[in-house]
Amino acid sequence: MQEAHYDAIVIGAGLGGLLSAAQLLQRGKSVALLERLDHCGGRFTAKTFKGVQVSTGAVHMVPFGSSGVLARTLRRLQIPHRLLDADVFGSFHVHGRQVRARGLLGVYRFLGPRQFFWFLRLGYLMFFRPLPASEGDLPFSAWLARHINVERNRELVAFFERIARFALSLELHQVSTAEVIATTKNMFRYGAPGIVEGGCGALVAELERRLRERGAAVLLSHEVLQILHADGRVTGVRARNKATGDELLLSAPLVVSDIGPRATTALVENRQVRQAELLKQQREAAQTAAAASEAPHAYREAVGLKVHVLSDVSLIPHRGIMYCLDTQRIAGIVQPTNCDPRLAPPGKHLLITHQVLQSENIEEEKALAIADLRRLFGETFERHCRILTMSVYRGEWPVNRLAQGRDLSPVTPLQGLFLVGDAVKPSGYLMVEGVAQSVNYVLDLLDAIERGEAAGPLGSPHLPATTAADSEGQRRPGWLPFGRGRKRARSGHVVRPPSRLNALRWLWTAPGNARKQVRRPLYP
What we know:
five-stranded parallel sheet, seven-stranded mixed sheet
C-alpha cells in the first residue's frame, strides 16, 4: 500500500473541492485532491457532444454574475475568467407570448395595473419591513396566501413559482419565507447573473491547471474508501486507484469534503453510498411519507431535469433567463450562446431548460418537457430544433444535496473534518455562489483558529462545544464566524453583500457588464 503525507486532503473535485484546494495552496499548504471520476468539475463542468458544450449540471450560468461571490473568489485566487452578465431582468412567456423586462418595472407589461400593485406591495413587505418572527419559518406559499388573493393574482403567483423552480429547484411550499427573502435580497444587491465565457468546463480546466502548476496532487479516478480518524480527530483517508486497483494511505490533519454530508458520513463509518441503493431508499421513504400523509415540505433534496436543445434559429432575444409562466413543467430557459457563440457549432444556438421533478415517473417528466417546448415555440421547434440530451438530477447527483435553507454547518463532530459545497451553503446564497461562500467560511474558520479566536490545534481545528437547537431540533455549533444573530469574526475570505442601494438599479435595467465591449475571447 502506497503512503504519503499532506497538510490537507480534499475529497471531491467539484467546484467546492477545486476552490478549497486552490485556497489551501495559496495558504502554503501541501494538498492532495481526490476525485472518483476521470475529470474535475462534478456538476459544474461540460462535455463536448456533437460540437456543443453540454453541461453536467449547471447551465453555464453564475447567479450573481461578475459581481458575485464566485467571481470575487476567482479574482482573489488570480484565476483567469470572464463572466458575461445578463442584459435584462428576464423575459416571461405568458399568454402565448414572450414579454421582455429590462428591469423590475417591466413586469407591469404582463401583470397589469392590479397585479402590479400587489407586486409592489409584496416588494415593500419583503425589502422594507422587518420580517415578523412568526412569518420567517412559514412556507413561502403560505406567506403569499396571507398577503394576497392567490386566485385573483395567478400571473403574480406564477412569477414567484417559476423563479423558485428555476433558481432553487423547489416548489414554493418547500422553501421558507425567510430564505426566499434572504436569497432575493442578495440577488438584487450583487447584480445580474452571468454566463461563463467558454462555459463552466473552461473555468474548471483553468482551476485544475492552476492547481497542478502550484504543486497540488490531483488524483483523478481515485475513489476514497474511508476517512480515517482516531481519538475524535481526522488522520487521513484510505483510497483506491480505480485504474490499477492499488490502495493508497494518505495522512493529513485536515480533510475537506465536497461530496455531501451523506457520503462523508458513510466514509467516516467505512461504507459506501451507491446511487441505485440510494434511489431505492428514497422511493421507499416517499411511499412511507405518502401513506402517513406527511407534509410535502418535508422533502429535503432539490431535484430537477435539464434539456439541452440545439436550434438553427435564435429563440431568446437576450442574455438572461426566459421564465415560462404558462407551461406544465419547464420553469425557465437560457440561451447561453447569446453570450458566447462558441458553446455551439457556428450558426447554431444552444438552449438549456430546467424544471423541478414533480413525480417519480421520469419518462412522463421528459414527455411533459417536450410538450412544453412545443407549446412555447410551436412549429419553429419542430422545424429548427433538436434535443441533444435530457438529464435527471437526483440521488447522489441532485441539483442540490439539501434544499435551499436546510443547509448544514460546515463543521463536523470530527476535529479537522469540514464540509463544503451545495449542502452547507449559507443562508441567502444559491447554487455556485453558495458553494464558493461555503469555502470562504471554512477558510475564515481556519484563520480564526490561527488567531486563537476558536479552540482547536492548528491543522485539526474544532469549535467550542457550546450548541444551540435550530427549528428542527438539530444541534449545531452556537458560535460560527458567520450567520445571522451570531458573533462575527474578522473576515478575510467571506464576501459581504454590496450596499442595499445597489438593488435600486434593478428597477430600470439589469446591473452588470452587459454593455461593456468584449474585445477578444479569454479562452481561444
